[in-house]
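User: structure tokens for this one?
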Amino acid sequence: MASLAGLLQLQGHRITGSDKEAYPPMSDLLSGLGIPILEPFAEENLDPRPDMVVIGNALSRGNPEVERVLDERIPFTSMAALLKEEFLTGRESLVVAGTHGKTTTTSMLAWIYQFASAEKPELEPSFLIGGVAENFGTSFQLRPTRTFIVEGDEYDTAFFDKGPKFLHYFPDGLILTHVEFDHADIYADLAAVKTAFKRLVNLVPRRGLIVSYDGCENVTDCIAKAFCRVQRYGFSDGADWRIQNLHYENGLMRWEVWHEGALWAELEMRMAGEHNALNATAAAALAFGQGVGKEAIQKALASFKSVKRRLEVRAEVGGITVIEDFAHHPTAIRETLRALRAVYPQARLWAVLEPRSNTLRRKVLEPELVASLRLADHVILAGVYQQQRIPAEERLHPEDVVRALNAAGTAAELCPDVETIVNRIVPQLLPGDVVALLSNGGFDGIYEKLPACLRERYPDSEKNA
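Assistant:
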């Protein structure tokens, strides 16, 4: 929604917005654009009467602004529908979808096109990303050129449109990174999730291209009836874009990509994690398939900086490294912790998790969550975010996760709030430790509160992160 607001402002519209609780990085982005965020929701936020109200999918009947919109018949639409109408129609739509890796892969693809446009200006992309891409310092860009790169979300569109947002985007090219059960609040089971992705695949025209991960049977099922070219990427011998000799050293991840039986390129990035090598290879494959040169792809990935809230170093104080990562699913947590193990192989690794996403707040994937968190040396679990909104029989009980971790030999404890977490963890931290703060929300300001407490303990010892 923040990215769409920025795009609309570039078109000359006057934009205002409302939220229950705004937090970085998007609140900072909007502030920098001069777009006011009115908090909390209230009917008077719609004064003066707007020409159009874009209703986000977090809102439902009973919201005071939604009720006024309906009572007064103020014109309204959804984020996805307006994006299609205002920006995608008449352009080449490149969509990045999947349970994991969407934001990072979309950022990589956009940066590849941007880098390549230095020699071919017609390649400069417009884009909309669900996070702030550090190479751009923003989550959106609008150019008069043909290519529009967009992150395709499988979550529902609005209270009046329960279909996935990505069904509005009609991709000419599609990356499908992974398909797992997620969004337990709106999808009944894995079959329902797969149905949504199959419908997306069915929108790609015969002339289009799908680049899909080959290490997931669910992805294979979803692309089985595609009418266009499909190219697979991954580690298997049969992958069209095969990753080999992946290694991380001296701050660089390097790997080979083999294509059509021959070495296509050697790639490198200042990022870690097998999942990021997969994301980069997918972006490279789609860009190459759309006509972007190999050399530009290599140089773009070598200069890629990452995305805000994805393995982002927030502070280095007293030899203790504090890292923020967007955590919404056990698999994402697993890959984050695996990546940190690669970068900091000698460190004691702490995982501090707020179960906040609609999936993590439920117990449906509790065994997978326990398995992922076991990759850490110490685990701190916060209370379930707004647990009263989750039916008791569906709700995750963090004490059960803590009990299972301790029984398996991983030190874990439950702390009900951020103040308790900070006060509990800081005295135990030692130089060389790495703390991963995992949440898909604001986590009650822990990203600032923990470093602040560490600075009090270790004055004059902060390293510029």
